[in-house]
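Researcher: Next entry in the queue.
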Amino acid sequence: MKKIILSSILTLLVSVSLFAKEPFIQVMSISDLNNLNSAKSSINKLGYKTYISKKGKWHIIYAGPFRNTKEANKALVAVKKHVSKDAFLTKVQVLKPKKIVKKYITPIQKKVAVPSVKIQEKKEAVKKVVAVKIVPIKKQPTPSSTPKEDVISEITIQEKTEITPIQRTIEPKEEKGIYIALAAGYSLMGVTKDDISGNVILNYELKDSGINYGAEIGYYFNNNIFISIDYQKTDLEEVSLNNAFTTLNYQFDEIYSFSPYIGAIAGYSTITWEKEPIDFATGKTSASSILGGLQVGSDISLYGGVSLSIFYRYLMMNNITNIETGTGKSKIEHNSEQNLNVGIKYNF
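Model: Structure for this entry, 348 residues:
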């Protein structure tokens, strides 16, 4: 029954994480086009994409999208500080702007003076001016009775190419960093007793469940791969287990604030009997072995670098306690441990 409950919780956790939208920051709503260009420029300087949605006379400015809520929260701090203190996180579908190229022909110029050619570059637009070749006015000799006329004998077409602004995009850099975490939860042990000879009677009933707690420190190589070093202690009243191990994990992209991950575990396990299992026991009351296992879980972004962590671990070990008395020999084996934990993680 306990295994069924653990499996149901894990299935629910993974199912909820499958429906997600990428987060955006709604920066502001303005109607003045001059302020609109200024806001876009300020957001671009921070290194984020901008998107515009128009409702009536209002232009709604969005920054994003971001890969996960953690990135969006970091960006929100910068946007509130440098652009708009009223910015907030949201989830919308935004279409990317299209590149538009316009060509048109200017009217024929009748001025003799040839203007200097300049190339101007602005953040809002790029304009290229092609020089116009104009032949100086020639005065044709005419009879005195006919008024003199200015004649332009040759002229080229002036062509201008106007390109709408192309927004500068800086993709978020892959995150690398250290984190620490604390967790506690419920443990279910696999415990067996095997009488090798005779009938060895224990002083008490072996408990197979208890509370565990522990700490870990880890490092993210990027947004997906991370490792950790963990210490976990499990109390079963008569027995305490001390597990030290490392994990290698793959974390999937954030989905609706959930960041699910899977990982492999390897380390060392030691058990210590808090009280002897029988009177006058001559066997050892402690044992140790290597351990291995798997874990699956999810981080849930709360704010900034703080996240809630929920995970399930299955550990395999071979801690054997041999007991020998005048009535026989017995072997007690702690061979597995299942954990369902909740913790707090902080990413630096």
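Model: Confidence is low (pLDDT under 50) at residues 12-20, 94-106, 110-135, 142-174.
Researcher: Noted, moving on.
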